[in-house]
Every structure is written in C-alpha cells, then in structure tokens.
C-alpha cells in the first residue's frame, strides 16, 4: 500500500483541487495523509466535510515542511506502508499518475521514483530530473538532453525534489527520515535524496507519471521574481530562501565527497550571492 504524505498550511483551494485530483485516479490503491499545521482558513474543516477518507493529522502551527512530512511518514510506517510518497498540495496529479507509479515500482521495487512536472497554465514540461556533479558544481537537466521520443519511462538521476517522490519503506528504515533539525524547509528533500544515493539506492524520474504544478506559487520563486534588497536577504538567509547560505553549507558538508568539498563550497556560495540579480 502507498501512503501519500502532504503537509498543508492555509491553502484551502489548492488543497481541495489537489485532493479532488487524487479522487479521480485510475488506481485507488493508496491512502492520503494530510498534515495540517494549524491552518486558519478552514482547510481542516473542508477536508473533514468533503474528503472523509483522508487521514487528517492536526498540528499546532509550529512546523515546517520537513518535520510536518516526518509526522506523516511516521504514521505511514506505523501503519505498515510499503511505499510512501511525498507530494505537495499545489500539484494536480494526472488521472493515471498513481497507476504509472505502481507499474514502474513493480519493476524497480527498491528505487525512488520521481514525477515529471508540467506547468499547469502552459502545458510546458518544467522538470524531468537532473544529474548533479559535485566535481563541477553543475547540474545537467534531463529535459535539455532528451529528445521527445526519449521522454518516456524511467530515466536515472542522482537527486530529486520531494514533489511527487515515491519512496520504498526500506529506504526510510535504512537512512532515516528527513533531517528536519538542519533543514526545516528548503533543501531537506535534496539532502534526503543525496543520502539515498550515498546509501547505494537508485533514483529515477518516471516520465510516465505526470503532475501539473504552479511554478510561480512557490515561496522560493516569489522571492526570486520580486527583486528587492529585502528579498535578497530572504533569498540568502530565510527558511524559504532558495539560496540560503547556511543550508547550502550544511548540505554540502554532509554529502559532498571530501575531495570536492572546498571547490564546491566556493562555487556554490558565489553562485548564490550573484544569481539572484543575474537570473
């Protein structure tokens, strides 16, 4: 059984549309855990009234993504989940999403499988996984190197965001949960998949399992889109900042091969200081 874990906070309409999409799945062999971290916009009440089959875990409002996700993961593990999927409420899974995840998980039962992300508004392919190089401090996006005929089935990657990631139970039992102490919000999902690779497991992007996303709705993107000195500070130091220097240094020290550590830190810090104004 797959348990889908989704933290939510004050995005009632997104959450409603997301849960409605899950109700339409062609394969029903899954359960949904919503970890509501103290929403005040009626999210919990809406779920209880309209989605009674959803497992609703109510928290106090003092969590961030990583620990809220961990609460859902612990519940799933305690209830004998075979697989756990982390999925955001600002996504719209296509109707055969779960079906295609299950199909490929049977062929790669010990691998993590990520989803192909599509812009909800334009239909453009947004993210199809990447290959990260500690040596060169660069990431090759698979969408840049795969032609249209190749954009199907599984493609191996060496990291993946938590958005639509299917994780076998064994992996959590081997490497533990998300590192909510060091990475309460951003970076926690990347750190987790670096640890997955370091433990000898594999990760694939499943090009047959598609989710629609709202790229401009993420806090990281909003900080990037609205350039200002205040947002530059948030970019580098806030929990939601995509260029958070503290998180970058910690995740690098934890996961980088030692022979590449110094050069990777230098390049990465420089990129985070400059990229906000360049991109």
Q: What topology emerges from the helices and strands here?
A:
Layout: E1 2-8, H1 12-23, E2 30-37, H2 43-50, E3 55-59, H3 65-78, E4 83-86, E5 91-93, H4 97-107, E6 112-119, E7 125-127, E8 130-133, E9 138-141, E10 154-157, E11 165-168, H5 169-175, H6 188-198, E12 203-213, H7 219-225, H8 229-237, H9 245-255, H10 261-278
Parallel strand pairs: 1-2, 1-4, 2-3, 6-12
Antiparallel strand pairs: 4-11, 5-12, 6-7, 8-9, 10-12
Description:
It is a single chain. Strand 2, helix 2 and strand 3 form a beta-alpha-beta unit. This protein is 39% helix and 23% strand. The N and C termini lie far apart (42 Å). The chain folds into 2 domains: 214 residues, Spore Coat Polysaccharide Biosynthesis Protein SpsA, Chain A, CATH 3.90.550; 57 residues, no CATH class. Helix 1 runs parallel beside helix 2 and helix 9 packs antiparallel against helix 10. The longest helix has 18 residues. Strands 3-2-1-4-11 form a 5-stranded mixed sheet, with helices on both faces. Strands 5, 6, 7, 10 and 12 form a 5-stranded mixed sheet that branches. The chain is of the alpha/beta class. The radius of gyration is 18 Å and the shape is globular. The model has no long low-confidence stretch (mean pLDDT 94).
Question: In short, what is this structure?
Answer:
The chain is α/β, with parallel strands linked by helices and 279 residues long. The protein has helices spanning 12-23, 43-50, 65-78, 97-107, 169-175, 188-198, 219-225, 229-237, 245-255, 261-278, and strands at residues 2-8, 30-37, 55-59, 83-86, 91-93, 112-119, 125-127, 130-133, 138-141, 154-157, 165-168, 203-213.
């Amino acid at each position: 059984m797959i348990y889908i874990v989704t933290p939510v906070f004050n995005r009632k309409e997104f959450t409603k549309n997301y849960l409605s999409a899950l109700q339409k799945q062609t394969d029903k062999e899954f359960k949904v855990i919503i970890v509501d971290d103290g929403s005040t916009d009626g999210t919990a009440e809406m779920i209880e009234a309209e989605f009674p089959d959803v497992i609703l875990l109510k928290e106090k409002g003092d969590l961030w993504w990583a620990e809220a996700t961990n609460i859902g993961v612990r519940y799933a593990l305690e209830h004998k989940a075979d697989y756990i999927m982390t999925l955001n409420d600002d996504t719209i899974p296509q109707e055969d999403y779960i079906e295609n995840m299950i199909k490929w998980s049977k062929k790669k039962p010990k691998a993590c499988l990520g989803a192909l992300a599509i812009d909800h508004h334009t239909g453009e392919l947004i993210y199809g996984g990447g290959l990260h190089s500690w040596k060169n401090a660069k990431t090759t996006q698979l969408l840049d190197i795969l032609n249209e005929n190749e954009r199907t089935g599984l493609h191996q990657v060496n990291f993946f965001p938590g958005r639509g990631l299917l994780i076998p139970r064994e992996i959590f039992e081997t490497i533990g949960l998300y590192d909510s102490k060091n990475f309460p919000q951003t970076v926690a999902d990347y750190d987790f998949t670096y640890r997955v690779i370091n433990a000898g497991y594999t990760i694939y992007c499943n090009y047959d399992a598609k989710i629609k996303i709202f790229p401009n709705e993420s806090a990281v993107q909003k900080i990037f889109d609205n350039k200002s000195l205040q947002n530059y500070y948030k970019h580098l130091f806030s929990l939601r900042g995509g260029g958070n220097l503290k998180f970058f240094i910690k995740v690098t020290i934890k996961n980088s091969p030692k022979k590449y550590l110094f050069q990777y830190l230098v390049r990465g810090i420089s990129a985070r200081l400059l990229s906000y104004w360049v991109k």
